[in-house]
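task queued by scheduler; priority normal; single chain, no ligands, no partner chains; default sampling; output format set to structure tokens
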Amino acid sequence: MSIDRTHDSRSELAALEAAVTSARAGFACMFSTSDEYETALITARRAEGRYGSWFDWQPMLLGGVACVLLGVFLIAF
């Protein structure tokens, strides 16, 4: 009842080992810390233009607050 499975077993074992190696490589990370990852992520998003500039609307906000305060001051006195 001895069946010669050594050739098939070896090829299956080699395929399984290759799959394990491939799976482990998929979990590898190019960043050693979360700070490096976040820095790279923010840099990439800025390059895409996802983040607007703070200085684009800051003068409008300042002017609006000044107008509101001026209105409150004129109404109060």
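post-processing summary
- Residues 6-26 form the longest helix (21 residues).
- The CA atoms of residues 53 and 75 lie 35 Å apart.
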